[in-house]
Amino acid sequence: MVIRNLIIVVLSCSLLFLGIQPGCAQKWKENKVLIIGIDGCRPDALLAANTPNLDALWKNGAYSFQARTDVISISGPCWTAMLTGVWQLKHKVISNDYRQPDLKNYPHFFHRIREEKPDLLTYSLANWGPIHKILQEGDATYYASAGNDARVTKQVAAILEKEEVDVMFVQLDEVDGAGHSHDYSVDSEKYLKAIEKIDREVGIMVQALAQRPKLEKENWLILVSSDHGGSDYGHGKNIPEHTTVFYIASGESVIKGEIEGEVGVVDVAVSALHHLGIPAKDSWYLDGRVSGLKLF
Ligand SMILES: [Zn+2]
User: Fold this and answer.
1) What is the pLDDT averaged over residues 239-255?
2) In the chain, at which residue ranges do the beta strands (DSSP E only) sit?
3) Distance of CA 55 from the midpoint of ligand 1 (Å)
4) May I ask the CATH architecture of the domain 25-284?
């Protein structure tokens, strides 16, 4: 019996080498990544709000509600940390002016993709336009700043439903606006309502992804996180209310459950690259690590 099983295993492996699929479907899928960034969304408020779409992602995925963002807890440095995989001491973006980022040594992860796997199609769609200031010529197949979350979602859904795409980054901004206007607090009804609206946008994107014509041949990793938290109508300080964010990873390749150890927004780029078959090189000096994913 043992010998027979051994023969089956050897035969299966041989078939794999011959390019014939013996039932290990996930090995034959194209790995793809969708990153959804929700600006200024505190993890405790996310848990307090009624968010069935985001709940479905983290409850069936890997997650941390104690993830860390940059000590300069404003959008410029924090989104750059998420998209480069390094903290502001390295990427040098310390404000929303994006003065002199060190793109040569710490580029957007799309740039790494272009260098390592130039055939992959990269999309970046944001409500908040400055996020694209760290993109270099040719890094993105497509990028657009729509200035309105619903419009961004509509564009994302249209692309996901029918376009060839390997990696997509999406930024939604209106939760942060609600925090500035109505306080970043679980007690702020309008802040929670804004999170619930964004949950519906996330639902539209996930549904669009489910409509993809070749979905059975694709292995999507969905990462959702935020650039920073907030309190008292603002953010920017190095305090837990501002620097604690959530990190959600959903898909076939995740290790379900709460992620042990430290998680940071810098893990988003590194985890996305890992899923795309681009392991981080030592020479890149990235600060992030692969979080919530199987390491093979
Ligand atoms: Zn803000």
Assistant:
1) 98
2) 30-38, 62-68, 122-126, 142-145, 167-172, 218-225, 244-250, 257-258
3) 24
4) 3-Layer(aba) Sandwich (3.40)
